[in-house]
Design brief:
Layout lengths: L5 H16 L4 H6 L4 E10 L5 E12 L5 E8 L4 H17 L5 E8 L7 H15 L8 E5 L5 H15 L20 H19 L8 E5 L3 H12 L3 E9 L3 E6 L6 H11 L9 E3 L1 H5 L5 E4 L8 H6 L4 E3 L8 H9 L3 E3 L1 H4 L2 H15 L5 H26 L3 H19 L4
Parallel strand pairs: 3-4, 3-5, 6-7, 6-10, 10-11, 11-12
Antiparallel strand pairs: 1-2, 2-4, 7-8, 8-9
The protein binds nicotinamide-adenine-dinucleotide.
The site of nicotinamide-adenine-dinucleotide has 23 residues, from helix 7 and strand 7.
């Protein structure tokens, strides 16, 4: 099956939204590529005494709204186009939620399961050593993404402070609580996905308390989405996950899972494969489940033409970045299955990151409720405004989100005489 290049994917929709807006011929040209993409080679002395060189990237898309902002991913499939696409999505996400940030993203081509703790630390510090001149609390603020976490952020920030002497906590977000982190940051993306899922279900006449939900991926986004949907009364019937030994597997319970039990199980075993109160179904059965909403929270291109043809859910909410490619998008539209796009649905993480940055810069603390209430408020504001655009232009939620974000970017580009 041909997999769509994520950069082509985002450019396609960006182009369409610029054409619909019809504001300035150069708008698409300005936004279609990042302002800067840096490729680095990181030497790491491995535990066996030999050096291995890891390739890494940092992409900085557009800084008219403020410093670049975006996560760092450690994964074998990281590549230049993926990082560029992810940085464009970050610009759109920050614009949609009115954050004073532009889009950035980074990554290293690596299978973290092959590294010892010591090698992982050297690699994380090595990333900063190659890039410290191009990041900073007023220039580019990285955060965790797939396979990176608060421990890695602590190593990276420590290295940044050592190399620059700039003893600020605000250069990285997604940090541990004891080292400049914010209450609520860890859960924020999942909270946001859950809030948007609840609202979108309401729009199609499904009460969250009667809803049947399937989730792909049980990492940070997937597990917190499940936790908060369960808190709202939603029933999570199926979870598809990946196990380094067994590959992709899917668990199912027609009565709905006890999510706090699943979270404890995953924390203990790092897998759900041996969870007892579940039956296993195939990945084909997962996609064909008769559920109200399917929430992909793993990686991009999870739903291509092949999967889209099978899907019977009424709604898809993109917890991951870019999980539905544009060919699948077209098929889902024909099947009248709504798709709530990533740049809206998973923006809770960057909103909480913004409040972490605000706390680091101002020295004023916020409670978990402060942060999560602000996340919910900002997301509902964006959701309602994008809904209005959807009705005004008669387009899908994805196009409406792009139109809304691009319009805001255009206005500031115009004010700054950059277009
Ligand atoms: P994570 O590494 O914590 O979790 C990803 C999970 O997906 C892992 O448990 C992994 O085993 C599982 N997985 C991988 N491939 C799979 C497959 N084919 N089928 C089923 N499960 C699979 O990462 P995360 O932080 O939860 O991020 C997930 C997605 O959400 C990414 O696209 C990321 O860019 C996006 N995102 C994350 C945040 C955040 O705050 N963490 C914010 C916005 C967007």
């Amino acid at each position: 099956m041909h997999s769509v290049n994520p950069l082509e994917n985002v450019q396609m929709i960006l182009k369409k939204s610029c054409e619909i807006l019809n504001l300035d011929g150069s708008l698409y040209e300005l936004l279609k590529e990042p302002e800067r993409t840096i490729e680095i080679n990181i030497p790491v002395k491995m535990d066996n005494g030999k050096f291995r060189i890891f390739k890494g990237y940092r992409s900085q898309h557009c800084d008219v709204m403020g410093p670049y902002k975006g996560g760092i991913r450690f994964h074998p499939s990281v590549n230049g186009d993926e990082v560029k696409a992810l940085s464009i999505w970050m610009s759109l996400k920050c614009s949609a939620t009115h954050l004073p940030f532009g889009g950035g993203k980074g990554g290293i081509i690596v299978d973290v399961d092959e590294l010892s703790e010591n090698e992982l630390e050297k690699l994380s510090r090595g990333y900063v050593k190659e890039l410290y001149k191009y990041i900073g609390d007023r220039f580019d603020i990285p955060a965790p993404d797939v396979n990176t976490n608060e421990k890695i952020m602590a190593w990276m920030l420590d290295e940044y402070i050592k190399l620059t002497g700039n003893n600020t906590l605000a250069t990285f977000t997604g940090k541990a609580l004891g080292f400049g982190g914010s209450y609520g940051r860890k859960e924020a993306t999942g909270v946001g996905v859950a809030v948007i899922t609840r609202e979108s279900l309401k729009k199609i006449g499904v009460n969250i308390k009667d809803s049947k939900i399937a989730i792909q991926g049980f990492g940070n986004v997937g597990s917190n989405t499940a936790k908060h949907l369960a808190r709202m009364g939603g029933n999570i019937l199926s979870i598809s996950e990946y196990d380094s030994e067994y590959g992709i597997y899917t668990i199912y319970n027609e009565d709905g899972f006890n999510i706090s039990e699943l979270i404890s199980h995953f924390a203990k075993y790092n897998t759900l494969i041996n969870y007892e109160n579940a039956k296993h179904i195939s990945i084909d059965q997962f996609y064909s489940l008769d559920v109200d909403v399917l929430i992909p929270c793993a990686l991009e291109n999870a739903i291509t033409e092949e999967e889209a043809k099978k899907i019977r859910a009424k709604l898809i909410v993109e917890g991951a970045n870019g999980p539905v490619d544009y060919i699948a998008d077209g098929i889902l539209r024909q099947k009248d299955i709504g798709v709530i796009p990533d740049i809206l649905a998973n923006s809770g993480g960057v909103i909480a990151s913004y409040f972490e940055w605000v706390q680091n810069i101002s020295g004023i603390d916020m409670t978990e409720d402060d942060v999560l209430n602000k996340v919910e408020y900002k997301m509902l504001l964006a959701y309602n405004e994008i809904m209005n655009i959807k009705d005004e232009y008669g387009v899908t939620m994805r196009l409406a989100s792009y139109i809304y974000s691009v319009l805001r970017l255009y206005k500031i580009l115009k004010l700054r005489s950059r277009i």
